[in-house]
Design brief:
The protein contains 9 helices and 14 strands. It is α/β, with parallel strands linked by helices. It has 2 domains: about 170 residues, HAD superfamily/HAD-like (Rossmann fold, 3-Layer(aba) Sandwich); about 90 residues, Hypothetical Protein, Haloacid Dehalogenase-like Hydrolase, Chain: A, domain 2, CATH 3.30.1240.
């Protein structure tokens, strides 16, 4: 049997908006893993916020892609249950200076190499992991970081996308969530980049790749999966632009779309 690399987004894919993870999804994740396939979580969440879901899936060994590809963690018998495996960084001063000028009322945070966050205005509870520290805005600018996070409560998504397109942000990669939330990563870094590192590390065949997601930050992951001959499934509730980037669309998260795809994994063998 040739193993599959399966990359799964968390929010809106594995778990509902309220954080609920269905037993059916857990059962299917465990089923495909018992057959020898590798399941990697690939999420925009920081490692500290991703790990509880990984644990609930019953995954205690292996790796996971966090922070939209900027951070890869290794799972195992470590103090936290994981440790940093690979971290991509960039200098945030240029992009932050431009964003601060264009969005003076926004909330800004940076993710440091150790997975902790510094922020200058409050974020929603638990949004920034379990280690986060309020600090003056100036102090966010001058150390290498793996991510910049921007929250702009006064804008809706369409307004925010319009502002970002005018700014350009050519020096970094970025992804916009459902709300006016912007994740900025080192240039060329996304979930697909992180999964491709694991594909090579684990020795997967190119075409034995299957990914699932629901957000704009999953589009590059979809493109990567398709570029190596794999499959990309968008969740049923995903925005149209996300569905357009996918190979196929499965059911919505509240209908256990992930479980439906994994239950049919053997059927994909005949399409290879």
């Amino acid at each position: 049997m040739t193993k599959w690399l399966i990359g799964l987004d968390i929010d809106g894919t594995l778990v509902h908006d309220d954080g609920y993870l269905s037993d059916r999804v857990v059962e299917q994740v465990q089923r495909v893993r018992s057959l020898g396939h590798e399941v990697f979580v690939a999420t925009g969440r920081a490692a500290a916020n991703a790990f509880p879901v990984i644990k609930d899936l019953g995954i205690s060994q292996g790796h996971a892609v966090c922070s939209n590809g900027a951070v890869t963690i290794e799972l195992g018998e470590f103090d936290k249950g994981y440790r940093m495996h690979h971290v991509e960084t960039f200098e945030p001063a240029e992009v932050l200076t431009e964003l601060i000028e264009k969005l003076p009322n926004a909330h800004f945070a940076v993710e440091d190499v150790d997975g902790s966050y510094r922020f200058h205005r409050p974020f929603p509870t638990y949004a920034l992991g379990d280690q986060n520290y309020e600090t003056p805005l100036e102090e966010l600018l001058h150390h290498p970081v793996s991510r910049v996070v921007v929250l702009s409560p006064e804008h809706d998504v369409d307004e925010f996308i319009s502002i970002m397109s005018k700014i350009g942000l050519q020096s970094v990669s970025y992804a916009i969530g459902y709300t006016a939330w912007l994740d900025i990563a080192p240039k060329g870094i996304d979930k697909g980049h992180g999964l491709d590192r694991l594909r090579r590390q684990y020795g997967f065949s190119d075409h034995r790749v299957l990914v699932m997601g629901d957000g704009r930050n999953d589009i590059d992951m979809f493109r990567w999966a398709k570029s190596v001959g794999g499959y990309a499934f968008a969740m049923g509730q995903a925005p149209d632009e996300v569905k357009m980037a996918a190979t196929a669309v499965t059911a919505a998260v509240n209908e256990d779309g992930v479980a439906q795809v994994l239950a049919s994994l053997e059927g994909l063998e005949y399409l290879q």
